[in-house]
Amino acid sequence: MVLPTANPGVRLVGRKEAPAPGLGSASRLAPPRLAAVAPHRTGRGWFSVAAITLDNYLPMQSTEVKNRTSTGEITSLRLITAVKTPYLPDGRFDLEAYDCLLNMQIQGGAEGVIVGGTTGEGHLMSWDEHIMLIGHTINCFGTRIKVIGNTGSNSTREAVHATEQGFAVGMDAALHINPYYGKTSTEGLISHFEAVLPMGPTIIYNVPSRSGQDISPEIIEAISGYSNMAGVKECVGHERVKCYTDKGITIWSGNDDECHDSRWKYGATGVISVASNLVPGLMYSLMYEGENAVLNEKLLPLMKWLFCQPNPIALNTALAQLGVARPVFRLPYVPLPLEKRIEFVRIVEAIGRENFVGQQEARVLDDDDFVLISRY
């Protein structure tokens, strides 16, 4: 195979070093380096990974930023909120409302936040918006709460680039989902995670109902030896949680309605929660104050209501009804129907308004109160 000489900075690298075409010994460039991607080992043995790479490529890493948070500081967190992203009427971020929500999370006892996750609608953001929101959160709240940026992607290239940027702006850890829609093999999943794990503390997110593919224990065990492997946000259920905790792997429940039992009966460290957007103090109690079946039963109607339609539809509706966020939805999300909005007000009354974020009374919004944005 002959590479075109019009692009002398690019070379094809396999098992052996390949000279860059068009560069003679008199070139002023530094000698070519081996590709950033070394041979990988899978269950079938060693094989070479060919890659088009730039000469003298270096990862965009900062030792100071990367080392500011240890993996152990992440694995000790018990209550992490997958925080909502509020919007202005034109669809841009409402940073004032976002800051208020973050302050309420900190006051309620949340120790970490996932920025731009499923709940925060990271999939509806441009990468510029995504990294800006991570940077804003670090800049304003980084001394009071751990900031975990969702920088996962179904493209390894995008996941690597976004994770580099996230750690460069100061996030404490990254959240990574498995490649969705364009699913890959077990070996491909391991290689995908191995590409991002060297950058900093990392939580793997397993939610087959969204990604279409389970991250099996075989995969988690294969990458569990990495020093940056903080743990797994696991949505499969109690048996999977116990499978990992028995092996000493840190697990956060990804299901609010299972988190109490996962924490106190199956060994989970804590929860990455949607409900804590609304009742952070009660979720803190659920994770820190011992087994409490009464409190768990009290919160179950809220937890089930939050997932009556795909998340974050109900949460967006609830925060609007509490006056914490404007009733603005980026499509394809639309608010819950009227009967569900009425049900939420009754749930608030049953749990106690004082336990919820915000100051306004919960109210039933009319359909005309909501703004749906298709361009932003």
Question: How would you characterize this protein structure?
Answer:
There is one protein chain. With 376 residues, the protein is α/β, with parallel strands linked by helices. The chain contains 14 helices and 14 strands. Strands 5-6-7-8-9-10-11-12 form an eight-stranded parallel beta barrel, surrounded by five helices. A two-stranded antiparallel ribbon has the order 1-4. It has a two-stranded antiparallel ribbon with strand order 2-3. Helix 6 (186-196) links the parallel strand 8 and strand 9. The longest helix has 15 residues, at 127-141. Residues 1-39 have low confidence and may be disordered. One of its GO terms (biological process) is diaminopimelate biosynthetic process. Belongs to the DapA family.
SSE succession: EEEEHHEHEHEHEHEHHEHEHEHHHEHE
| Overall geometric form | globular
Q: Give a count of the beta strands, DSSP E runs of length 2 or more.
A: 14
Helix-strand category? alpha/beta
Terminal residue distance: 45 Å
| Strand arrangement, major sheet | 5-6-7-8-9-10-11-12
The Cα radius of gyration reads 23 Å
Helix share bin:
25-40%
Main beta sheet, described? 8 strands, parallel, barrel
Strand fraction equals 5-15%
Q: Tally the helices.
A: 14
Low-confidence stretches: 1-39
Mean pLDDT rating: 88
